[in-house]
Amino acid sequence: MTSALAALQGEIVECRRCPRLVAWRESVAREKRAAYRDWDYWGRPVPAFGDPAARVVLYGLAPAAHGANRTGRMFTGDRSGDFLYAALHRAGLANRPTAESRDDGLELRDCWITASVRCAPPANKPLPDERAACEAWMRRELPLLTAARVVICLGAIAWESALRMRALIGGDPVPRPRPRFGHGAELPGAPWTLLGSFHPSQQNTFTGKLTPAMLDAVLSRALEIAR
Asked: What's the predicted TM-score (pTM) here?
């Protein structure tokens, strides 16, 4: 990781800007889930992860309480991550199809994973002011990903956040009418194209709203744009 990106992630993990999120993430880390009672929960903001020279960026919502809030790495230790990393491995963007812990040997190639909110929120629903506070970090992080060509937005909140970020960092303004999120939605522009994908949450993957083939298609399109 480049020194600037590494330094920024170091700042992020010390953040305490949002009292509700701080209280929640730390209470979850203390109380734990019975299945993970032997774990030393991370219980802090979760840093972004991946290849700093990535052309493909995955933009998620927020850490899961007993997933990334436990393991300290994006999409690691939960069913959403199981689904996502299997797809990244099929696409050649990850060296292995599973993610259990920060020291499991997983590496990303040409891919960077970040999120609009870095702390686990109650009921997986960050408040608008919490999203706004965390986007200050994104305004600093995204310009450091100088090779990025495409941002895959995992869900509607990520799509809206990335639309704003693209304009705020000096890229194309938000179009009018405002582009709507949808799986497979595509919005070309500078400095990167936006692609929409349903989030790999259990409510989407268990119901068939998002299938492996659907996510594979989005990743394939992202690689086509990037290369």
From this structure: 0.95
